[in-house]
Amino acid sequence: MKRIFEKLDDIIIKISSAILFIMMIWVFSDAVGRYVFNHPLPGTLEITEEYLMVCIVFLSISYAQKHKAHVRVDLFIHYIPEHILKVTDVIMQLFMLFYAVLLTRQAFAQALWCIEVNSTSRGSLGYPLAPAYFLMGLGLLMTSVRILFELVEGARVIKGGQS
């Protein structure tokens, strides 16, 4: 199961990378259109902030968690015994899992609400917002599963260390 998850996570990070490339081309084209031809691309701000940035950020969280790329304050870690650090990591992962599950639930609930009320963007294009919330929920779901796998692994390490 973890192997399938890893393959899915690899696909999602490649999609996120492609979206980052698309956003770069889009914003560059908008800037050229605005300053060279005095004709910017319509909806650039709305699409980049309500779709592309959402995709890049939320579809990448699990990947960042996998590579321990989130911000950590490690000022006092060198003074704490290793076994206490392992227990502390498991406790923090429990908190992270709880928070990630709550955010996942809320993102999917918001997506369903957007479908129910036919919520659209405030800009001139008026495109539906539900897909962005679904993508947010997908990224948070992947992060929740990643944290769950790490939590199980951390519990195994702690249990193995005490035997």
UniProtKB/TrEMBL annotation:
This is TRAP transporter small permease. Belongs to the TRAP transporter small permease family. Keywords: Cell inner membrane, Cell membrane, Membrane, Transmembrane, Transmembrane helix, Transport. Its main location: membrane. Pfam families: DctQ. The keyword Transmembrane helix applies. InterPro entries: DctQ, TRAP_DctQ. The lineage of its organism: Bacteria, Bacillati, Bacillota, Clostridia, Eubacteriales. Residues 23-156 form the Tripartite ATP-independent periplasmic transporters DctQ component domain. It is a multi-pass membrane protein. It is found in: Cell inner membrane. The keyword Ubl conjugation does not apply. The chain crosses the membrane at residues 12-28, 48-64, 84-103, 130-149.
